[in-house]
Structures are given as structure tokens and as C-alpha cells.
Amino acid sequence: MLKPIDTSPEAPWKQRYREPVIWSAAIAAQCPERGLVWTNVSGTMQFHTWHPATGELTQITHTAGGHDTVMELSPDGRWVYFLADRHGNEIGHYSRMPSEGGPVQDITPDGEPYSSFTFSLSREGNRFGFAAARKQGFSCHLVDLGPGDTVGTPRLLYSLKTQLSGAFLSADGSRALVMSSEHSGTNEFSLLAFDALTGRRIGELWDGAGTSLEVERLSPVAGDNRLAAVSNRTGIERVLLWNPDTGYRQDLDLDIPGAQAVHDWSPDGGRLVVRGLANAVQTIYLVDLATRETRKLACPPGVHRLFFTPDGRSLLSLWNDAEHNSRVVELDQHTGRVVRTLIEQGTPPRGRPMMSVSFPSSDGKSIQGWLCRPKGKGPFPTIIETHGGPAAVQLNTFHPGAQAWVEHGFAFLTINYHGSVTFGRDFEQSIWFDLGRRETEDLAAAREFLLQEHVARPDALFLTGWSYGGYLTLMGLGKRPDLWTGGMAGIAISDWAMSWEDSADALRGYEEALFGGTPQQHPDRYRSSSPVTYASSFRAPVLIIQGRNDTRTPRRPIEVFEKRMRELGKDITVHWYDTGHAGSETDTGLGIAFQEMMMKFAEQVLARR
Questions:
Q1: Domain-by-domain residue ranges, the chain?
Q2: Does residue 108 contact residue 93 with C-beta atoms inside 8 Å?
Q3: Positive or negative, the Cα torsion across 467, 468, 469, 470?
Q4: Is the pLDDT of residue 82 over 80?
Q5: What's domain 22-343's superfamily in CATH?
Q6: What angle (nearest 5°) sits at the alpha carbon of residue 475, between those of residues 474 and 481?
Q7: Could you tell me if 391 and 467 are in contact, meaning their C-beta atoms sit under 8 angstroms apart?
Q8: What whole-number distance in Å separates Cα of residue 28 and Cα of residue 32?
Q9: How far is residue 313's CA from residue 332's CA, in Å, rounded to a whole number?
Q10: Residues 6+ away with beta carbon under 8 Å from 6
Q11: CB-based burial label for 253 (10 Å; 0-12, 13-18, 19+)
Q12: Which of 47, 58, 113, 121 is nearest to 85 (CA)?
């Protein structure tokens, strides 16, 4: 039986949403007295200066609806760098502001606005690098940062019609690394190294067709131009070191299970913190680069974004799990155990634990997911969620939305569908050029698993998700209409070709990589992967929540989709909000409002049945 939705201000599920979330934390490399924290303690996601000795946080941004672009603290702790956009549209110019608050300075003032997802600062603070996407393609630029407050004119380093990421800078700013798709034209990258002063290309690392490399960390030691990267040439990500000056490559061949990634490189250059992620469960290791000793750390489940303190004596980490909201903790670097909590902002009402489950999909591949059940005996009305991305992975993390559903009497399953990362190259690339087909089969397989396990009621199964997960919600309802009771799609894509026309340039390039070209080159691929193609097949009611200022999942395709669905007499509700893609994540009030809206929608659908 469903429980009545508690809409009171002090409802436990609302309290969980209000518990502050920490998205990132950092300490200035040259000034350990200064730090930066990205948190929604104020009710919206804003940046705060952090004094590690006292734990004091001071809010320095006051962006309406919350700040949703990444910031980075300068090594001396004086400046905060970020992409200044307009009301969350993720298009603008890179800028900086004093870390104690103050006027914003545009450091790329000339030229049209651009979209960008990658930038970096050299550890010595003398150079800034970034990637920009405009209609003509992608480009990497460098900005020299002189003594005092002087800022140089941006210099073009490298350009490409298809995707790239960078520029990633060495400690002294003398080398710039770029992840380039010039060989593939897709989401597979080689690494290019440049002299950051002259722009001369000095080296390339490529593992051949069908493989990809990714920059993880560059050595923090000035004059040491090595970088740590991962390659998927074995079929799953493995850590390597590369020196572009000499061309020497060292595959570390670490005995670490699952997909590997580098969290941080110690300030003395001697150790790496490496994560292994197998079946969405991570383990953390400390690797001595001189002796190759690999020591597993006894970190609590849920630690992420580990980094060394500037003196290299401790590890700091964000930590959360299904029952605890995020906090910043100090870990013993020898054991990984928690020494103390540095930032903890409240304790949410205790929720239900998440359990890892696996089941076969239609192709025999195993799909992993996280299941949360109400107390009592099932079967229950059930929510199946798909994460955004698609190149992402759902871990056992604090999830107030999942707990809200469970508290209301629903079971909740979130799955790592085909296309999710860390399950191997073949699994991730299996959806390329054919989006939505395999993932829809995964949803059907999840339904069958839940029915076999007597978790779900066959007449009460709903799909939900945000961004790519919202897209899959619409695809599931359209391609397998006989399976679902309803769906709640957030910031979704309904027509890939129209989305390509209206998206920010960086997203347009990503979509071209996923489809193997433009809508003009592959119209059938775009059409068969678009929910609007299956509008006439929809049977279940659908709720869509969409941002008006979103350049990742633009508004026009949803406007056209809603009109088409109404012409066909379909049951569709669309709710609009005014900001961009991250609206419900950066604004606690929106998150609560949207969750209540979805629960009431599901309740009404079940009542009608």
C-alpha cells in the first residue's frame, strides 16, 4: 500500500533534500590556509572560501538559482577561475574573481561567447588553458598569467572540427596536453603534447584505431613533464605514465580490479592514489612509483575525489553513501581510515540502504543496478531510474529522490545500462550510432528481474531519469509501451536532430560523435533514436520537467513533442522552469518541488488505474 505523501515542511524526505551537498572541495597548492568548497548550504549551489584550520565557510557567489559551472582555486589561493555564463546556459567567457569575493574579471574578453567543459591552471599559477566550442569547431587556448594581476591575450594552441579536451598544463606551465579525436572523429582520443610557450607539437600518444586515452593527472613537480593517463586498449581502463619530452611510456600493470582511474598525484611526485571500479563498487589504492608497491586502503565505501593535502601528509576526500549526505574527511594515507571530519553540514533522517543487484539483458550481458526497498513484504509499486550521461556510472551514493520514493511506498531501482562507463570498452561503446535500442532492452530486462524477484507489481512500474535518463524514459515509453504504467522525464531529449540544431556547440560535437556524424549525414540514425518517432505508440501518461534556458537538452524539441503528443490524444504533462540544465541540482527548492510533483503524478496515475 502506498503511504500518503507527506507535504509538510518537516517531512523527512524534504529534510534529506535540504541537507547540504558538497560537490567539490580544494586547498590551494601554495597556500594551505585557503580552500574552496562548492556546496548548497545556502539553499542553492554556491562557492565558498574555506579555512581548513577552522572549518569556516564564507559564501562568495550569490548566483540566482545556484552556480552550476566548475570553479578552480589558483595555487596561491588569491583567485577563483570559472566560466561566466548567463543564467545557467553554460555559454560565456572564462573569468576570475578574488577568492574573498569581489568584482569578476573576464580573462577572455574578446570574441563571441563559447561553450566549454574543460580548463586547467598550471601548479605554479603562470598559465591558464581551456577548450572552447563554437560553430566552426573546437579549439584549445592558453592565457599567460603574469606577476601581480596581469593577464595575457589568449593564444590559439590547437583546433579541430571534432571533439577535443584540454589544455591540461604541466606544473610549471611549460607543457600543454590535449585529448584529440583527430584520428577517430568520435569519443576516442589520442594525446597531443605541445610546448606551451611556442605552440610547437612535441609528441603524440595513440594506441590505435578503436582505442582511447584520457589525461588523469600531470606530475606536480616543476620540470617533471610526465603525466598519468588511462588507456582502454586492453578492453578496460588501465593506468600508464607518459613523458612527452622523451616519448617514454610506462604501463603500470597494477593489480587493481575493474576500471582504473587516478585520483591524485602526491606533491613530491612519488605516489599515486588510484581507484579501481568493478561492478560499480570501488576500491582505493596507494601506489609507490619507485617501488611499485600497491597498497589497498581501508577507505569507507563512498569516498570520492580524493586528493593530497599540500604537504602530502594526509589525504582528503568527499564521502557519502545512500544513508549519509556528503562531507569532507581526512584519511590516514597509510591505512585509508577516517582520521577526522573537516566539514559536516547536518545529519539527514536515516534512510533505507541500497543493495547491488545484477541481471541479464537481452544480449546476455549483465546489467548492474542499485535496489532500495521499503520495509515490509512486496510486491511494491516500483520506480526504475536511468542515470544521465550516457558516459557515466551510478554508484552507491546519497540519493534523496530514491529515499523519497521508498518512504512513499515504492521500490526503487537505478541501473547502469549499456553505455555506462567502467564496465569495459565494448559495453560503453555498444550504444554508439544506435542510441536507445540496447538501453530500452535493459529497461525491459530490469522489469523482468523485478517481477521474478517479487519486488514489483506488474501494473505499477514507472520509468524516470534526468538528461540522458530523461531521454531513455521517453524511449522506453515509446518503444515498449506495453510494459510501463507511466514515466517522469527530466530535462529530456525527444528529437536528436532538432536537439543538435539547438544545442551548445560543445554538445553538438558530442552528439555527432555518438551518432557518427550529423543529422544530414545519418538521418535514419537520428530518427530511429528519437522518442518523437514513436509518439503514436505511447500508452502510459508521461510528465516532462524541462528548463527554458538549457543548451544541453534544448526547449524547442520538447515543445514540438508536446504538440505532437496532444495532436495524437496522448496523456502528457509538461512543466517548465526558467534556468538551465542543472536547475534542480543547484536549487534545493526546485529539487523538492520536482520530487513532490513526480510523486503526486505517479499517485494520480495509479489512482486512475
A1: 22-343, 355-608
A2: yes
A3: positive
A4: yes
A5: TolB, C-terminal domain (2.120.10.30)
A6: 90
A7: no
A8: 6
A9: 8
A10: 12, 13, 14, 407
A11: exposed
A12: 113
- Determine how β-strand 190-195 pairs with β-strand 201-205: antiparallel
Angle (CA) 528 456 358, round 5°: 70
The vertex-454 CA angle with 453 and 459, nearest 5°, equals: 125
**Which DSSP state fits 447?**
H
End-to-end CA distance of the chain: 14
Please report the DSSP string for 230-246 in residue order: EE-TTSS-EEEEEETTT
C-beta of residue 258 within 8 angstroms of C-beta of residue 422: yes
pLDDT at 166 over 80: yes
Peptide bond into 167 cis (omega under 30): yes
- Higher pLDDT: 111 or 153? It is 153
**Rounded Cα–Cα distance for residues 221 and 289 (Å):** 14
Short-list 82, 69, 66, 72, CA closest to 34: 72
Q: Please state the length of the chain.
A: 609
pLDDT confidence bin for 4, thresholds 50/70/90: confident
Counting Cβ atoms within 10 Å, is residue 528 exposed (0-12), middle (13-18) or buried (19+)? middle
pLDDT of residue 606: 95
Instruction: Give the model's pLDDT for residue 19.
Output: 84
Cβ-proximal residues to 209 (8 Å cutoff; 6+ apart), any chain:
183, 184
Same fold, 22-343 and 355-608: no
Is there a contact between 601 and 82 (Cβ–Cβ < 8 Å)?
Answer: no
Question: What cell does 74 get?
Answer: 589558483
pTM: 0.92
Do residues 315 and 328 make contact, with C-beta atoms less than 8 angstroms apart? Answer: no
Give the right CATH number for 355-608 from 3.40.50.1820, 3.30.70.2860, 2.40.50.140, 3.30.2130.10: 3.40.50.1820
For residues 192 and 180, the answer to whether their CB atoms sit within 8 Å is: yes
Contact 329, 346 (CB under 8 A): no
Q: What are phi and psi of 292, to 5 degrees?
A: 65, 15
**Cell numbers representing residue 559 in the block:** 515543445
H/E stretch holding 133: strand 127-134
Q: How far is CA 64 from CA 67, 442, 546, in A?
A: 8, 38, 18
